[in-house]
Amino acid sequence: MKRISTGIPGLDNMIEGGLPSPSLTLLAGDAGAGKTTFCTQFLCKGADLGEHGLYLLTFGGPSDLQINYASSYEFVKSAYFGNEIFYLELEEMVENACKSKDFLDLLEREIDLLKPARIVIENLSVLEGVLKEEYWRFLLKLSHMIKSRSMVALVTEDAQPGIPYPANIAQVADGIILLQNEVINFARRRSIEILKMSGTSHHLGKHAVDISVKGLVVYPGL
Ligand SMILES: Nc1ncnc2c1ncn2[C@@H]1O[C@H](COP(=O)(O)OP(=O)(O)OP(=O)(O)O)[C@@H](O)[C@H]1O
Ligand SMILES: [Mg+2]
After folding, report:
1. How far apart are CA 28 and CA 116, in angstroms?
2. Which residues touch 204 (CB under 8 Å, ≥6 apart)?
3. φ and ψ at 39, to 5 degrees?
4. How many domains is the chain partitioned into structurally?
5. Which ligand sits nearest to residue 29's alpha carbon?
6. Residue 206's domain is classified under what CATH number?
């Protein structure tokens, strides 16, 4: 199986060298657990290798603001943006309550144009409120598009009280990675846990994570 590096120090060795290609991985976690940082490292790793990456925002734009935040990390080069890494804002389409076909057509056009090897979709479940009964079929078609174009996708979702991730995205996902930032003995402890990854003999349980200007670093076994 072909694998691609996540760009997260310490993580590739826990998943037989990287994320399977093609695949769709759900990256879920608490607020501030490091989801956006993870995705930025993932796309920057691709950019270092000369691959194109597409970053889809369902909200939280404008993308200039996100690029500004991302630029505070050491591993981010401004030359990536517009050359290897491309942001696409879906906020207006969400506001205009567009249909499943509109989202899929736009994605198809952008994928044909940019030929991304890596794709990030932040907070995909925002589209559930817009697409309603179309949403499940949209997820299946999206997953099919990702596989048929040989892409590796990361989909981020916020954990909700008592619900670590949306069940419908988990069903179409080949892998699930959980990031947490829990209070343990009055201190905050960051961790990562690989809940599932198809075709991969991966480490189990929680492993320590640090976030600094270098981004996420995973310490397997800690
Ligand atoms: N440049 C930086 N240097 C060091 N630490 C940073 C830097 N930028 C962010 N952080 C830390 O990393 C944390 C995680 O940020 P990140 O945005 O990746 O989390 P997130 O899971 O995407 O959060 P959200 O749920 O708000 O989307 C921040 O809350 C902050 O503590
Ligand atoms: Mg975020």
Report:
1. 22
2. 193, 194
3. -65, -35
4. 1
5. 1
6. 3.40.50.300
In order along its 222 residues, the chain shows pLDDT tens digits of: 899 999 999 999 999 999 999 999 999 999 999 999 999 999 999 999 999 999 999 998 788 889 999 999 999 999 999 999 999 999 999 989 899 999 999 999 999 999 999 999 999 999 999 999 999 999 999 999 999 999 999 999 999 889 999 999 999 999 999 999 998 888 899 999 999 999 999 999 999 999 999 999 999 987
Residues with CB under 6 A from ligand 1: 29, 31-37, 72-73, 158, 211-213
Which of 37, 67, 68 should be mutated for ligand 1, with most atoms under 8 A from CB? 37
Domain that holds residue 207: 3-219
Q: How far apart are CA 141 and CA 221, in angstroms?
A: 37
- Tell me the one-letter amino acid at 208: A
The backbone torsions φ and ψ at residue 133, rounded to the nearest 5 degrees and listed phi first, read -70, -15
Instruction: Name the nearest CA neighbour of 22 among 207, 147, 141, 143.
Output: 147
